[in-house]
Amino acid sequence: MALLRAAGAEVPVQAILFDKDGTLLDFVYTWGNWSEQLLARFSHELEARKLRPIEVDSDTLWGTRRSADGEMTDYDRNGPLAMGTVGELLAVLTWQGYRSGLSWAEAKVLARECASYANERLAQGRTVKPLEGVAAFLAQCRRAGLALGVVTADETETALEHLGWLGFGHYFDVCIGADRTERGKPFPDMVELACGKLGLPCSRVAVIGDTNGDMRMAKAAGAALAIGIAGPDGAGAELLADADAIIVSYGELAVLEGES
Fold first, then answer.
1. Fewest CB atoms within 10 A around its CB: which of 49, 109, 149, 182?
2. 51, 9: one domain
3. Number of helices and strands (H, E) in the chain?
4. pLDDT confidence of residue 10
5. Are residues 79 and 155 in the same domain?
6. Which molecular function GO terms apply here (predicted)?
7. What residues have CB less than 8 Å from 5, skipping those under 6 apart?
8. Spatial CA neighbour of 172 closest among 12, 17, 30
9. Secondary structure of 14-55 in the HEC alphabet?
10. Does one domain contain both 54 and 118?
11. What is the pLDDT of residue 125?
């Protein structure tokens, strides 16, 4: 069994489960882009119908953060874009469409159509990039004989597509999206399902994520270690209240082979 070292903690593990967005890939680069495409398209369609515009800005709607010049630079790790499923995000947008004058049914259809548009734009550009150091850490885990998995609020098919774009698909033995369980984060269901597929007890598995929902999911499942990834210079670390260890880069993690 390998030893996983993280921020002073050292725990024997047989597998690591990763959140995807903000943990394996740069959250703002992918989902910041996606959310802006989605909202711009939805707003355009409201304008074309001569309806009231959405009354809140994208930061308020999604939980994103911008610099003084308007560039999206960060996100609320407890906010809807970071923690919500695609279905939940579209429900938020549907509500805004209803407030602007669409029927609920019309707003639901429009939200889905705009999401399809945003997905297509994302696919055209393969708009993903890995967090610094993640590829080397995944390779290190594999050399140590660890099983690896993904547990994400995204849908499974989309998650697998993103992992393929990153060139990471071959590292992972299992990928569990929110569509594979009745309850998503912070409930333990995704960790429990992933561990079941790996044939391992949750107590021998570490979980790495960027939101406290990931940490609570890990704790609820009885995982060996819940590791939170904060932003640059520790931004958002205070929101990872249930983490056993907090890091800002993969350089702070190490896997020692063959320990018992």
1. 182
2. no
3. 10, 11
4. 87
5. no
6. hydrolase activity
7. 253, 254, 255, 256
8. 17
9. CEEEECCECCCECHHHHHHHHHHHHHHHHHHHHHHCCCCCCC
10. yes
11. 92
Percent of the chain with pLDDT over 70: 99
Tokens encoding 77: 């790790």
The count of structural domains within the chain is 2
Neighbours of 233 (CB within 10 A): 8
Of all residues in the chain, what percent are helix, strand and coil, respectively (each to 5)?
A: 50, 20, 30
Q: At a CB cut-off of 8 Å and minimum separation 6, what does 136 contact?
A: 250
Which of 17, 9, 23 is closest to 231 using CA atoms? 23
Extract the residue ranges of the chain whose pLDDT is less than 50: 259-260
Q: Which residue carries 């967090």 as its tokens?
A: 131
Residues 14 and 133 in one domain: yes
Residue 225's contacts (CB-CB under 8 Å, 6 or more residues apart) are 4, 6, 9, 11, 13, 206, 207, 218, 244, 245
What is the tens place of the pLDDT at every residue in 231-249?
A: 888 888 898 999 999 999 9
Angle at 200 between CA 131 and CA 219, to 5 degrees: 60
pTM, two decimal places: 0.90
Same domain, 13 and 139: yes
Residue of 120, 96, 116 whose CA lies nearest to 107: 96
170 is in which domain, residue-wise?
2-26+129-256
Domain boundary among 84, 99, 125: 125
We report the CATH number of the domain holding residue 8 as 3.40.50.1000
What pLDDT digit, counting tens, does each position of 87-107 carry? Answer: 999 999 999 999 999 999 999
